[in-house]
Every structure is written in structure tokens, then in C-alpha cells.
Design brief:
Length: 308
């Protein structure tokens, strides 16, 4: 091998690592932290408890292996007693969760990155609970929208849920989010009836069952909001289930992220005895934009207690 060939071969070998780095960089797609992730095809996200990193102790173990994805999973191994979690968010809001014996619950970090203090309790008798442990976790999200795409204890769905399958049958990945919201909203309000008897008798701690709501075709505002949230999240549209008050009435509604506009507050809400597409500001051609803004423009009409 002559000297010229050896020099060329040496130059190629020296350049190869940089070439591989350049090629691999061109082949990957980066996702901005402040924009929702894009999945193709549409993907129903599934929380996982891998056991790689855990906190707490029996009877309630916290799997925190995926906190960067915006959630952790609380798993009870108790055979007969309920467990409870109290979570202090970065803003100081106290969230409470109850986990039935032998069950698990997905809990999302709805205030985004920051420090969350998690205290576990076990039922002693009736409504009496004893503290098990207290842990502080520092959350750094890979994407700010992930907590509003995954299911959780309040918005519980899987790829096999009827709600997820229905949502994906109504739209496809080429449907823009405004049209997807409209189609899902139209389906929900056309096929559900408000259940006044349930509203009068619902007890503290009630959790919606989105597939049961679809099956019965009835529900209260909590059921409407949870079903709509589950269907939107199944289509990779970030959605917040908001729980609080409209005026002095206990209420649930949704905020939706529209890519062309950002977060649309009170996007779908309940007024009187009808559900309404409350905020059409993402639709520049809406004829009733001004009238609706008279109501939703006053933030005092809505008081958020919890975001799920």
C-alpha cells in the first residue's frame, strides 16, 4: 500500500465518527418541550410500572420509574384496607387520591416540573388513616403536555376502551385538532343525557367510568368532562379536566390545547342543563364570538380547584 493510499484511508477513518454522528442527527426528529408530541399513527399512551425505581413501602408502593413522562403509579398490596395519597403540588395545592385494596392508580403531575411532596396513608378504621411515609420527588418533564395526554385515576382509559376506540373511529391523523374537538364534542352532546337524579345523589369520592358513561348514555358534568377528555387524549390532543366551581355551583369542564392558538380555557362547559362549546375563539369565523366572550371573558365565573 503506497503512502498516498494510506493517507486517504487514515483520513476516512478519522472522519467516520463525525459522519456517523451527522447521519444519526439527521435521521432523528426533535420534539420541542413546549409543543405537544406528535405521534404517527395516533397513539393512546399507556402508563407503565416497570419497577426500575420505587418509593414508599408496603402496603402501597409508588413506581416512579417514569416521572419524566408526567406520571407515577401507586400500587396497593393490601387485601382489605384502602390506601390514600396526599400530594402537595409545587403551587401548594393539596391533591387526594384513594386506592382500593389490591388496586393501582395512575397519578399525573398536572402542575408540570417541580417538587411534589407525596404522603402515603393506610386506612385504620372507617375514615381514620395512619401515615405510612412521606417523600418529595423532583419532576423534570420531557414534554410539558404529557400529563394531559396520559390516562389517570380520574380520566381512566386504555387502547381497548370503548371511548378510545370510538374517538379514533371518528377522526384520523389528518384531522386538525379544531375539527377533532368539534366532532368529539358533537358526538358526546348528541348521545348523552344529563342525569339529574345522579347529580342529586352522587357521593364524595365518585370517579367517572368513561365506558360506563358511553354504555348508559347518561351522566353528570363530571362524566361528560371525563369522557370528552379521554376521547381527546386518545387522539393525542392535550386536554385538562378541570374541577371547581362555575359561580357557586360545583362543576367540571375542560381546557383544550389547540396548536394554532394555545390553551383554550373553558373550551367545553356546562351551563344550566345543557353542554355548550363555550369558547370558539379558535374559530376566527365564529358569529357568536363576542357574545360568548362576554361570559367566558370574566374569569371570576370559573374557579379551578383541581386539574386532573
Amino acid at each position: 500500500m503506497n503512502r498516498f493510499i494510506r493517507l486517504r484511508l487514515l483520513a476516512m477513518l478519522l472522519c467516520l465518527p463525525f459522519l456517523l454522528i451527522f447521519i444519526s442527527g439527521c435521521g432523528s426528529s426533535s420534539q420541542k418541550k413546549d409543543e405537544p408530541p406528535v405521534y404517527s399513527p395516533l397513539q393512546v399512551l399507556v402508563p407503565e410500572a416497570t419497577g426500575k425505581e420505587t418509593l414508599g413501602s408496603s402496603p402501597m408502593i409508588l413506581d416512579v420509574s417514569n416521572i419524566s413522562q408526567g406520571y407515577f403509579i401507586a400500587q396497593s398490596d393490601s387485601s382489605d384496607l384502602t390506601c390514600s395519597l396526599q400530594i402537595i403540588s409545587p403551587s401548594g395545592v393539596l391533591y387526594s387520591y384513594f386506592i382500593a385494596p389490591g388496586e393501582s392508580a395512575t397519578v399525573t403531575f398536572t402542575e408540570g416540573s417541580g417538587d411534589y411532596t407525596i404522603t402515603g396513608y393506610q386506612q385504620v378504621q372507617g375514615d381514620q388513616y395512619a401515615a405510612l411515609y412521606s417523600e418529595t420527588v423532583t419532576v423534570q418533564l420531557e414534554n410539558d403536555f404529557l400529563p394531559f395526554l396520559y390516562p389517570n385515576q380520574y380520566v381512566n382509559f386504555t387502547p381497548d376502551s370503548k371511548a378510545s376506540q370510538l374517538a379514533l373511529s371518528l377522526i384520523d391523523e389528518d384531522t386538525v385538532d379544531v375539527d377533532a374537538l368539534q366532532q368529539i364534542y358533537d358526538y358526546v352532546v348528541s348521545n348523552l343525557t344529563y342525569d339529574y337524579e345522579k347529580a342529586d345523589t352522587v357521593t364524595t369520592g365518585y370517579l367517572p367510568d368513561v365506558d360506563e358513561t358511553l354504555k348508559t348514555g347518561t351522566g353528570i358534568c363530571f362524566d361528560y368532562a371525563a369522557l370528552t377528555t379521554a376521547m381527546l387524549r386518545s387522539c393525542d390532543i392535550p386536554c385538562k379536566l378541570q374541577i371547581g366551581y362555575a359561580g357557586d355551583i360545583k362543576h367540571a369542564w375542560i381546557d383544550v390545547y389547540i396548536r394554532s392558538k394555545g390553551w383554550v380555557n373553558q373550551a367545553v362547559s356546562f351551563k344550566g342543563d345543557t353542554w355548550t362549546l363555550m369558547d370558539p375563539t379558535f374559530d376566527s369565523n365564529s358569529d357568536d364570538k363576542e357574545a360568548i366572550q362576554d361570559y367566558i371573558g370574566d374569569e371570576s365565573n370559573y374557579t379551578v380547584q383541581f386539574t386532573r
